[in-house]
Amino acid sequence: MNIETMTAQEIRYGLMEKNFTATEVVTSLFERIREVEPKIDGYLTLCEDEALLQAKKIDEKVSQGKPLGKLAGIPIAIKDNICTDGIKTTCASKMLHDFIPPYDATVVKKLKEEDAIIIGKTNMDEFAMGSSTENSSFKNTKNPWDLDRVPGGSSGGSAAVVGAGMSPISLGSDTGGSIRQPAAFCGVVGLKPTYGLVSRFGLIAFGSSLDQIGPFGKTVKDTALTLEVIQGEDKLDSTSVKQAFTKDYLSTIEQGIKGMKIAVPTEFFKSGLDEEISTSIKDSIEKFKALGAIVEEISLPITEEGLSAYYIISSAEASSNLARFDGIRYGYRTEDFVNLDELIEKTRSEAFGEEVKRRIMLGTYALSSGYYDAYYNRAQKLRKKIKEEFNAVFEKYDIILSPTSPVLPFKIGEKSDDPVEMYLADIYTININLAGIPALSMPCGFSKSGLPIGIQLIGSHYCEEKILRAAYSLEQELKLANKLPKL
Ligand code: GLN
């Protein structure tokens, strides 16, 4: 069994055909993990015993001829900011180093209901703040295509384990690009759904008005399949949308894109964009034309301003969300303290990393009286403008196309001393979260040095179906899906 290149769909099919058992799937996957994980460091926790137990249950279902779930026997890795009942969920922070949630996030519950097998929790930037996974308090994850380089972030672990053939699919979270950018860096597919399409219950909050959980896969179809399972209304998340907005993406994915209107903003190809990335995106544009799409250049002037609005709004929300970590209710507590103030101060000083502290300070400042109007309010106004600009484009076009990242995967340590340089890596992804719309990143080429390049397909609210259809068509044309690096 070549578990490292098997897709989720192939696993499910093989299981139904009785070509192999779920136990064999899990056993060979853990063999692969033992071989490759020491090089990648993508996982924070592995759940081999629980996974084998779940596999056994599925094998029993198969032998008794019982109906199987949509993800039957398919291993899945979960980002470590998504709560898993009885399994450590740390947010890659010293603050939650020993936190074991007593409940499952809604997405995890849904995965289990469809017979998926949770195999482990993946590394990330602490509290999902970062673009390289270097802000993890525990370890650096390496890019499977070049072990000296970062896997992107903040869901770097989830992208790297799929890229390295250590899990067919995984879940990440995306507040400003944290699914799409690591997907681009690791040569896999990653989708950030429309805000509200997937429940955030059990996702440890960073920026609540921006956060969305979404899937990674080796192929567009696996990504669509996972989205079908995790989407939908949830009484436990009042921002989740009605069931009527959900769709059966796989049923339309092969319908092609004849006549689909694609917009390419000229602003996205200005200076700052790596030349090899630019060339590769332009090649894909030609492919789209050949597939029958109508591609036109447009202007989306607000692009650059989005970055400052995002860092104000996300940090403001983070400063409020992270106030709950006080050493009293959850996780880490300082050892010596004389009073309550000192307990809280010392706990937070000792357990939060540098980037998290930076965001809390930035956010608190932006929200403080006297500065609220100058920063937070202005950022919200800009956010409104960004939404309007996107809405205007989607009146005429189905998809907006862009690079996912302006740069190729960079070296570990290359940008970690310069936060602003790191923030600039998000230039193409953050506006999508501010607007609440869906976007997908997929491989569209490789640099001369063998590093993956990602293309981003952006759609209007609840237009995941169009994005996935366009992505699948391009994937068939490019034939770059499911490439495995030499490890
Ligand atoms: N890189 C962005 C940040 O640091 C996005 C993070 C995310 O999407 N979680 O905030």
Count helical runs: 15
Mean pLDDT equals: 96
What are the distinct ligands in this entry?
glutamine
CATH superfamily of the largest domain: Amidase signature (AS) domain
Highest-level CATH class of the largest domain: Alpha Beta
- The tally of strands reads 11
Please give the radius of gyration in angstroms. Answer: 21 Å
The H/E string reads HHEHEHEHEHEEHEHEHHHHEHHEEH
Distance between the termini: 18 Å
Overall morphology: globular
Uncertain segments: none
What this model shows, in words?
This protein is an alpha/beta fold and 487 residues long. It has 2 domains: 3-259 and 405-414 and 444-452, Amidase signature (AS) domain (Amidase signature (AS) enzymes, Alpha-Beta Complex); 304-380, no CATH class. The chain has helices at residues 8-16, 22-40, 48-63, 106-113, 156-163, 180-186, 220-230, 275-290, 305-321, 340-351, 354-367, 373-396, 419-424, 430-435, 464-478, and strands at residues 43-46, 75-79, 117-122, 169-174, 189-192, 212-217, 261-265, 294-298, 399-403, 439-446, 452-459. Strands 1-3-2-4-6-5-10-11-9-7-8 form an 11-stranded mixed sheet, sandwiched between helices. A hairpin with a 5-residue loop joins strand 10 (439-446) and strand 11. Helix 9 (305-321) crosses helix 11. The longest helix has 24 residues, at 373-396. The radius of gyration is 21 Å and the shape is globular. Bound molecules: glutamine. Glutamine (GLN) is lined by residues 128-131, 154, 174-178, 206, 314, 426.
